[in-house]
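tokens incoming
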């Protein structure tokens, strides 16, 4: 991202990279932002004005169209919203931010975001940086100089593959003896009555995790 606006604090897309699961580059290009660039953030991005000139870059619309073609893989956009079909999973870090910069949307159930996947988050509300996750989960450093989108793509994909490959194991205390009745903490009586009135379907929804485990993608 480069900066736009009077103080250069507005993030605008200036470079796009899309890879497949085998880390092959499917699309990579410099992108001419819709707004005038006021801060190239060269120390981080490595982008200079000549990279965004006509002939050296593509328009936001062209980049958007190409990314959509790769993601949908021939599937109709309206159909991909409810049924995956040929549409592909989108893996990345901070996907909503990146999609917003490209003026794009993509179905939530097809997104695999390493910034918001609960097992990779610092807290339920706070994400870890991609650099931190790559160092601690993959064992190598990224973003040590100019940030290259290909490097970030590869790191996010490797994190996804690692988390997808994890197996669920029974809890160590699954077969431990149940606590004595006096030690148990029952629901308050009002809550107990509320649960008893629920249908099996309601109870199932209540017990379902609020996130999709990536191991189910395997």
């Amino acid at each position: 991202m480069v900066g736009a606006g009077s103080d250069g604090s507005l993030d605008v897309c200036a470079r796009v990279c899309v890879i497949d699961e085998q880390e092959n580059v499917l699309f990579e290009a410099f992108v001419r932002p819709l707004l005038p660039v006021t801060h190239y953030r060269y120390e981080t991005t490595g982008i200079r004005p000549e990279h965004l000139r006509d002939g050296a870059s593509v328009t936001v619309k062209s980049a958007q169209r190409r990314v959509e073609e790769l993601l949908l893989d021939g599937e109709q956009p309206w159909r991909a919203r409810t049924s995956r079909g040929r549409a592909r999973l989108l893996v990345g870090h901070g996907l909503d931010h990146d999609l917003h910069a490209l003026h794009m949307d993509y179905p939530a159930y097809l997104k695999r975001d390493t910034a918001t996947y609960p097992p990779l988050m610092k807290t339920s509300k706070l994400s870890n940086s991609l650099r931190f996750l790559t160092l601690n989960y993959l064992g190598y450093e990224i973003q040590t100089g100019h940030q290259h989108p290909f490097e970030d793509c590869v790191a996010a994909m490797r994190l996804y593959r690692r988390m997808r490959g994890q197996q669920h194991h029974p809890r160590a205390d699954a077969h431990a003896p149940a606590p004595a009745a006096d030690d148990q903490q029952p629901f308050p009586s009002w809550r107990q009555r509320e649960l008893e009135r629920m249908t099996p379907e309601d109870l199932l929804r209540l017990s379902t995790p609020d996130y999709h485990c990536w191991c189910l993608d395997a």
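note: The domain at 2-164 is CATH 3.30.420.10 (Nucleotidyltransferase; domain 5).
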